[in-house]
Amino acid sequence: MRRIYLYRATGIMLALMLGAALAFAWARSQDMALVLLVEESRIEAPAEDGGDAAGQ
Amino acid sequence: MGRTIEGVFWVAAYLAVILAPLVVMMISPTPPGRSFLAELSVALAFVALAQAAVQFLLIARYRHVTAPYGIDIILKYHREMGMMAVGLLLAHPLLLVADRPAMAALLDPFGGTAGTRLGNWALYTLVLLLVLSLARKRIGLGYEQWRVSHALLGLAGLGLAHGHIHLSARYAATAWKEWVLIAISAALVASFAWLRLAKPAFQFRRPWRVAAVEAERGRTWSLALEPEGHDGIEFRPGQFAWVCLSRTPYSVEEHPFSFSSSAEAGPRLEFAVEELGDFTSGIGDVEPGRRAWLDGPHGSFSPDRSPAAGYVFFAGGVGIAPFLGMLRTMADRGDPRPVLLFYGSPRWEDTPYREALGELADRLALTVVPVIEEPPEGWTGERGVIDEALLARRLPREGIERMHFVCGPPPMMDAVEYALRARGIPRARIRSERFELV
Question: Taking all residues of chain B, what is their mean pLDDT, rounded to a whole number?
């Protein structure tokens, strides 16, 4: 009988894994990232008037 | 921690480990995003990698992991997750090729870059592992040879996959991310190393000795072991141990056998062993005095874990072993609860332990119903196999809640479980244990 629960658990696991993989793929294809641990360095864009780019 | 809470905890931990690589790879800095299919391919590969690594923990026989579900279910889960992991790994190159057909050239195991070659080899190694597991009996691969090849191919596949990730240097270009992946795999492989390296070292200090090997009916043997220089082990009736009769506990030749002796009788242990395969066919030649090693007790197939007002046991062939242990324990404890035992056997004269069961019936509120496929002349008992019609006639209707335990050959177990469900027995009142996996 526990096999019934096993098959259900396997199905749920597969669904969760595929769901997470699809979410990852969607987020990455949108080029999104979690900014949790690493503080991103900020680089200011060059001024339109041709001035030096700050912070470089 | 209660069994249910433990069970939920391990499922959550399993998911956390499986999905950890995806979370890690989402943390900035990340490589430039690519198409949906290419990123999905990568995601499935990371999930499969973690899944492959967790496989090592699943077979490491940790009691905390196995107790909530039963070790047979954990091994079956290991098998199903293994198939799923290889399936997800196969999807990795296929999705890349679907995204960019030119990538098909990279599937050449001897072409492409070192990184793609390692990826291909990892994939082929794990596919070979799966094929050997599914076709072991058909291709005549011995159980021991299969076990060694299974472990080596699994380790090689995991190592090659990490090499592929390292050399591909895309998501793992950030060193700490690659180290997280390596740490996850290393920790899980270490659990397997514990089983194969550290645990035998402890077993060396607790040797056992074969005290007797006695022939029973139906090509079955009673194997008795006694501890040497220690107090033995405590176990619950219905549990089992992996028994190794080699010179050292590092041998791959070990087999799970249920305790058929009373849990109250110790320290001498008894097991019922039927001549079935390469190892068990030589059990009658084992000399008393031979050194033995035990890994156990294991298993959750025990009335001690499933208290009830009464029990119904269903045994087929050597599946009688755990029930012998349960009944002998109940007799030693003076347990007054009613037990009904359905015992399926091909022939009455080959029915092992029928005399021992007769003696137990005198000491317990035990009713034994032998169900014989080819009964002798003049047989007035049940004949055929245990099916719904038999249960309709013989299942008690006294109104007390009994727990039903099933152990025997897989077809018999399927039939009994189906018949019990058809008779309206709730799943929660049915316990079973099966070990025929490869």
Answer: 91
Would an 8 Å CB–CB cutoff place A25 in contact with chain B?
yes
- Residue B9 and residue B143 in one domain: yes
Q: How many CB atoms lie within 10 A of CB B392?
A: 11
Nearest to B427 among A4, A16, A27 (CB): A4
Given CB atoms, is A1 within the 8 Å cutoff of chain B?
yes
Last residue of a domain, one of B154, B182, B199: B199
Position A51 pLDDT exceeds 50: no
pTM listed for this prediction: 0.82
Residue A29 lies in a domain: yes
Residue of A17, A20, A25 lying closest to B36 (CB–CB) = A25
Assign A4 a pLDDT band (cuts: 50, 70, 90): low
Give pLDDT tens digits for B348-369: 999 999 999 999 999 999 999 9
**Number of domains forming the structure of chain A:** 1
Residues B429, B329, B352, B359, CA torsion sign: negative
pLDDT of residue A7: 75
Measured distance CA(B269)–CA(B230) in Å, rounded: 13
Q: Do B261 and B365 reside in the same domain of the chain?
A: no
Whether B437 is covered by a domain: the verdict is: no
Please tell me which of the candidates B38, B43, B421 has its beta carbon nearest to residue A21: B43
Q: Which residues of A touch B81 (CB under 8 A)?
A: 10, 13
B307-320 pLDDT, tens per residue?
Answer: 999 999 999 988 99
Domain enclosing residue B36, as ranges: 3-199
Q: Which residue of A has its CA nearest to B84?
A: A14
Chain B residues within an 8 Å CB radius of A24: 22, 25-26, 39-40, 42-43
Cα–Cα distances (Å) from B59 to B89, B140, B163, B190, B243, in that order, read 21, 23, 24, 12, 16
Give residue-wise pLDDT tens across range B2-51.
667 877 888 888 999 999 999 999 998 889 889 999 999 999 999 999 99
What is the three-class DSSP state of B274?
strand
Query: CB–CB of A10 and B80 under 8 A?
Result: yes
Tell me whether residues B430 and A1 touch, CB distance under 8 A: yes
Residue A25: give the domain boundaries. 1-38
Contact B325, B238 (CB under 8 A): yes
Q: How many residues does chain A have?
A: 56
Q: Beta B310-316 vs B402-407: how paired, if at all?
A: parallel
ipTM of the complex: 0.79
What does the alpha-carbon distance between residue B308 and residue B6 come to, in Å, rounded to a whole number?
22
Say which of B14, B27, B77 has its CB closest to residue A6: B77
- Contact call for A17 and B88, based on CB within 8 A: yes
Name the residue of chain A whose CA is nearest to B51's CA: A17
Q: A28 at the B interface (CB within 8 A)? A: yes
Low-confidence ranges of chain B (pLDDT < 70): 1-3, 277-278, 398-400, 435-438
Q: Are residues B10 and B28 in the same domain?
A: yes
Looking at beta carbons, which residues of chain B come within 8 Å of A43? Answer: none
Q: CATH no. for residue B259? A: 2.40.30.10
Which CATH number does the domain housing residue B307 bear?
3.40.50.80
Closest CA to B7 of B79, B69, B76, B58: B69
